[in-house]
Amino acid sequence: MKTSIATVSIAGDLAEKFAAISAAGFDGVEIFENDFLAFDGSPRDVGRMAGDTGLTITLFQPFRDFEGLPEPQRNRAFDRAERKFDVMQELGTDLMLVCSSVSPVSLGGIDRAAMDFHELGERAAKRGLRVGYEALAWGRHVNDHRDAWEIVRRTEHPNIGLVLDSFHTLARRIELGSIRSIPADKIFIVQLADAPLIEMDLLYWSRHFRNMPGEGDLPVRQFMQAVAATGYDGYLSLEIFNDQFRGGSAKAISVDGRRSLVWLMDQVRREEPALDMAIPPMPDRIGVGGVEFIEFAADRQDAGQLGSLLRMLGFVEAGRHVSKDVTLYRQGAINIVINTERQGFAHSSFVVHGTSAYAMGLKVEDAAATVARAEALGAEIFHQRVGPGELSIPAIRGVGGGLIYFLDAKTDLAKVWDIEFTPVVPASSGSGVGLTRIDHVGQTMAQEEMPSWLLFYVSIFRTTKTPMVDIVDPAGLVRSQVIEGLDKRFRLTLNGAESHRTLAGHFIAETFGSGVQHLALATDDIFATAAKLQADGFEPLQISMNYYDDVEARFGLDPEVADRLRSANILYDRDDNGEFFQLYAPTFGEGFIIEFVERRGAYAGYGAPNAPFRIAAQKRLMRPKGMPKV
User: Fold this and answer.
1) Predicted pLDDT of residue 629
2) If you average pLDDT over residues 303-316, what whole number do you get?
3) Shortest CA distance to 169 belongs to which of 149, 193, 144?
4) Radius of gyration of the chain (CA)
5) Fewest beta carbons within 10 Å, which of 188, 245, 426, 451?
6) Exposed e or buried b for every residue in 338-352, given b needs 16+ CB within 10 A?
7) Which helix (H) or strand (E) holds 440?
């Protein structure tokens, strides 16, 4: 598999782009003409820079408004092409992209276009160059790859071929079976991009909202299956126009791009096992059986406060690490670890972020296979010296530089609590407050990071993603999207903050980066849990009484049920399949959220309609802006 990416896809000058693209593992790079024109150096300098970073220049693009022109525009178009051929030869690339004309003076006509391309092919052949023709989705006369292929076919010239671009084909919902009959040697390069499904002008959609395969909603896998069926084995190249990417990290976006191509072709190989494709071998996507533990990094003072809170919530101190200053709290199948070590990664995380949920452990089918797949997809593997009595638990770096550990049932990893922890006899033998498991974990990040982490999770784990939802904070919008395991035992909400004034934005600003902000704990009886919590002195987040009047009327609730919700500060939601109940603790630290939930029936959501009201209540308790921490 040969991979490439267009320079327009990432931010920076050409030197920065080449360095990031090479470091991500790409084989080649497309030179977008505007990037070249803005460069203060010769074409040979650009070619040398690319070569020095190990990159092949796969394509020079785009050449616009060429075919079907009347005179004198036709003659000028050939003169322009000859000058671009000069540049290509100095760059050291042999392929130029010509996109279908949008010129208002173009005349159209397949035979006329074929004649123009035949002459262009003759001129290119004299220089040892090739020309690829691409159908723009908004082309004046040619906006369908089937018409572009017919022009190339009639040209009958070995130096003229087709460029297939997934966006242009999929945006127009063109039938994909037509690709399978195109000879592989006439496809000169394949450009790939995804996009969210948005109804808008095609040109504007393309120029601002493209993203990596797997980050959007277009059937890019099916497109690539059709291409692979031709026997094509040339470059797969990303051409991404995206406003956020242009202002983002070139390194991170390049890594995402390479990951997206590897995952895309892994999917194609599994769907079309008979096809002979050179794809990096890796295990299949990994199933997740839930969250085994959440681990906090803290100092002794905060650890004491957090421990007191957990005990009030019905947790017991279940174990202490055999060699480290680490304590395990447990209730039901929920394991919460507090790490107050003065060295190692946990301490480094505390120094940077303060007290935070810096790590989570996932129950997976095969821990070693999970790490192998993650590594093949460009994830950063985490290693730390193993101390006395410790297991070597496989892990990778995740959101905000935090850790994701993997435990399976087939190795000693399943015995981690018995091996690494000395049991502690709890002071009381109470049964807790009825919390049973972790329902979901919420991770907060800057909004522009969300596509990257969505791709990260869905490419490594056997999960699906839900449509994006706008969460209304009194100070702005927060974008939210959910990653779910196929059996719903693993649920992860990703929340993207656009404003530092939102609760999510405040969390990022105060903890110096993205991370776990929200822990939702499940109960089978929310009212019994609320009663036990209240008996232990727990004071829930106070929800406005106006909310309950609206809920009673909106859902037609029995007044007695509404009164029970109101008296316990429990939020309520309902969908076609079931009901959802939410109870919140006041925020801990700089906005960490603990929530108790009960799902009845097959309720599929996360209480999004309730978010504005609980956020308003949470923000009333926040430290006023400018007031120092104590």
Assistant:
1) 54
2) 96
3) 144
4) 28
5) 426
6) bbbbeeebbbebbee
7) strand 435-446
Inter-CA distances, 301 with 327, 396, 542, Å:
14, 29, 27
219-222 — which CB contacts under 8 Å span 24+ positions?
219/170, 219/176, 220/166, 220/170, 220/192, 220/193, 220/194, 220/264, 221/264, 221/267, 221/268, 221/271, 222/176
Alpha-carbon span 477 to 608, nearest angstrom? 12
- The continuous run of DSSP H or E covering 565 comes out as helix 559-568
**So what's the pLDDT on residue 374?**
97
Comparing 61 with 248, the larger pLDDT belongs to: 61
Pairwise CA distance, residues 192 & 203, whole Å: 16
Q: Amino acid identity of 188?
A: F
Contact 42, 86 (CB under 8 A): no
Cβ–Cβ < 8 Å for 65, 101:
yes
In tens, the pLDDT along 10-41 reads 999 999 999 999 999 999 999 999 999 999 99
Query: For residue 250, what pLDDT band results from cuts at 50, 70 and 90?
Result: very high
Task: With beta carbons less than 8 A apart as the criterion, state whether 21 and 8 touch.
Answer: no
- Out of 101-105, 216-220, 503-507, which region has the weakest mean confidence (pLDDT)? 503-507
Q: Give the model's pLDDT for residue 451.
A: 92
Q: What percent of the chain has pLDDT over 70?
A: 98
CA distance 516 to 518: 6
Residue stretches of the annotated binding site for Mg(2+): 440, 518, 595
Residue 149's nearest CA partner among 130, 165, 128, 173 is 165
Q: How many Å apart are CA 166 and CA 126, to the nearest integer?
A: 31
Closest CA to 249 of 19, 46, 496: 19
Please list, residue by residue across 579-611, b when 16 or more beta carbons sit within 10 angstroms of its beta carbon and e when fewer do: ebbbbbbebbbbbbbbbbbbbeeebebbbbbbb
Q: What pLDDT sits at residue 627?
A: 47
Helices (H), 127-197: 145-155, 166-171
Distance CA 18, CA 209 (A): 23
- Which residues belong to the annotated binding site for a divalent metal cation? 134, 165, 191, 239
Cβ neighbours around 621 below 10 Å, total: 11
Residues 188-210 have a mean pLDDT of 94
Q: What is the pLDDT of residues 516-552, one digit of tens each?
A: 999 999 999 999 999 999 999 999 999 999 999 999 9
pLDDT digits (tens, 9 = 90+) for 620-630: 887 555 544 54
DSSP letter string, 528-560: HHHHHHHHTT--PPPPPHHHHHHHHHHHT--HH
- Return the DSSP state at 238: E
Q: Give the integer Cα–Cα distance in Å for 183 and 59.
A: 20
d(CA 129, CA 94): 5
Interval 429-442: pLDDT, tens: 457 999 999 999 99
Q: At what angle do helices 73-91 and 110-126 cross, to 10 degrees?
A: 40
Question: Percent of the chain, pLDDT > 90?
Answer: 90
User: Could you tell me the two tokens for 325?
Assistant: 């200053």
Q: Give the pLDDT score at 380.
A: 96
| 230, 272 Cβ separation under 8 angstroms | no
pTM for the model: 0.92
User: Rounded distance, CA 350 to CA 297, Å?
Assistant: 6
